[in-house]
Amino acid sequence: MDYALQQLLNALAFGAEYSLVALGLAVVFSIMGLVNFAHGEIIGVSAYSVFLAAALGLTSPIVAVLLAVAAAALAAIAFERVAFRPVRYAPTTTGLLTAFGVSIVVQNLFMLLISPKPQSVSILNGLNQMWFFGPFAVSSLQVMELVVSGLTILALVLFLNRSTLGLAIRAASRDFATVRLMGIRANRVIATAFAISGALAGIAAVFIIARRGSVSPDLGFSLVLKAFVACVIGGFGSLAGAAAGGMLLGFIEVGLLVALPQEYGGFKDALTYVIIVALLVYRPEGLLGQRVELGDKEI
Amino acid sequence: MARSEVSQAIENTVLPAAAVAQPGGALTRSLIGGLVTSLPVLMVGLAILNFAPTYYTYLALGAFVNLIVVVGLQVFMGNSNIANLGHSAFVGLGAYGVAILSTPLAMKKLSIPNAPFGFATLQLDPVSSALIALVVVGILAAVSGKVISRLSGVAATIVSLALLIIVHSVFLNWTDLFKGNQAFFGIPKVVGLPWMMVFSVVVIVLARLFKDSRWGLQLRASAQSPQAAAALGIDARRLRLMSWVLSALICGLAGVLYAYFAGTISPKLFYFQMIFNTLAMLILGGMATVTGAVTGVIVLSVGLEFIRSIESGVTIAGIQLPQLLGLSGVALGVVIVLCMAFRPSGISGRYELDELLSRFFRRSAK
């Protein structure tokens, strides 16, 4: 029983993290059709700014958390301004490849300017403790991941539903041209979307640093690949789909971890992806995605 | 008189690409076009074969493998306009296929003594190993292509990435067969520069023939306007599957050749680094044409070699620069980003080399 509960918490925590990152991807994709491969590097920028601040003498974990989120939001806005604005109205493939290029540049800049080797960051280690509830021992980090992700998603839903800018963002994902005709600035909507996406990545970065205790240049890359897969299962561009896809991915991973014998543990990733590809054979448009009429987005 | 002028004008404006001076059918035209495109490659190859020291020959062999990979990538990406980020999986499969089949038994006792399915006691000659490896690549490509061709653009790209991760993780974890993280050595070194040049030319011509064929044309049409193409009765899924398999086979061939010239392979060779390099080459050259693929490989191979020499730390005017790991990666990324922002069609743009040449000569003849 204890074991089952522990694995359930594991799955929920993994799923929450994937959902956070996948939501960040989906917010940007739904508005401007950009497949943001550089999302992992936003996580990277956030993690490295915590590393640098700690190296310069920062000791307060709360400030470090705020710094991580702020740095990620700023990095996302900066990426949009520098790299993605020139390709805003270009075909999806162009944007995708641009983002891939940005991701390569930033990853290699970390290598070039800091170090190719992982660097240790201990400032957030305090978040990762064991909590005891009677007979149960749970990782504080996992509980926090679950709670914080839940609250963040709630806040996002409230923002999108209750504020004017949120309304504009939702409208922009349907028909950007009309939103602009209503007198709302395109740049503001897109910058807000990127800031939200970045902040979500920053929260994920906090958990990653707390869990690993170190930063490395490819820190966010594999996580973002999984988040992409979560988006694809959920239906690309659908926010609810991204969150659900992330959770499903968490459960598939932990399920495999439990089901696979120890010596085959290395095949976990391969099998996860195989299951997902098999899912896509039956629902190519994703679980919550709608079958779009091809050509709808053509001008 | 007036009428022929009109038809001339139509021919010039509507069909600039097709209005090539050569007589003969479309097949001959694209065959000659492919050969013209491969001329620069042949010249570079011959120059290196005759004059360059051994070190450069080795570099050139690597560049030729990249060339074949990039041409293979162009076959799918250029015609279907879907980004493929998983092609190096097929390069790896080709390389590991021949490694497992053709490595001498004495070497296998050292490297994979516990290989399943009797591979530990099996040794085939290089040619049949290569053929079997390509058949395996073809089968896996057909299976994965079945999924990929059903998906829309973005989802297809993500699944191609997932494919890369699946294959890489199998290479790493199935240690009895693939030796895991360690280098797989002892593959017979049977391919030199001449063979590499022959295969490069074959692959370039093949890619050009596919692009100009009716399937290639239909696929390009469906990439530009899915609805219009579907209205004309074009089965885009079947065509995407076809180009995916052809692209995978060419990439597999590149892997086979790599294994046969290097003699040693390891999984990390066929992972993201190769994707970055070849993708940047294709984008820089221009992915719409086979000429673009060739141009990109030539330009970036030279450029990257130059950057790598700086990266390892050089002495400029008596000052020793430190090692700059990551510089080539930054350069690759910058190339991709700048290309996408300022010239999404790459260096060569819409036209193949022979089309450019014939346009140029007709203009100067007038």
UniProtKB/TrEMBL annotation, chain A:
Transmembrane parts of this sequence: 20-38, 50-76, 96-115, 136-160, 189-211, 223-252
Alphabetically ordered keywords of this record: Amino-acid transport, Cell membrane, Membrane, Transmembrane, Transmembrane helix, Transport
Topology versus the membrane: Multi-pass membrane protein
Highest taxon of source: Bacteria
InterPro entries for this protein: ABC_transp_permease, BCAA_transport_permease
Subcellular location(s) per record: Cell membrane
Pfam families named among the record's database cross-references: BPD_transp_2 (PF02653)
Keyword set includes Cell wall biogenesis/degradation: no
The keyword Kinase appears for this protein: no
Family: Belongs to the binding-protein-dependent transport system permease family. LivHM subfamily.
Name of protein: Branched-chain amino acid ABC transporter permease
UniProtKB/TrEMBL annotation, chain B:
Keywords assigned by UniProt, alphabetized: Cell membrane, Membrane, Transmembrane, Transmembrane helix
Protein name in UniProt: Branched-chain amino acid ABC transporter permease
Domain of life, per lineage: Bacteria
Database matches in PANTHER family: HIGH-AFFINITY BRANCHED-CHAIN AMINO ACID TRANSPORT PROTEIN BRAE, HIGH-AFFINITY BRANCHED-CHAIN AMINO ACID TRANSPORT SYSTEM PERMEASE
UniProt keyword Transmembrane present: yes
Chief subcellular location: membrane
Record's subcellular location: Cell membrane
InterPro entries linked to this entry: ABC_transp_permease (IPR001851), LivM-like (IPR043428)
Annotated organism of origin: Mesorhizobium qingshengii
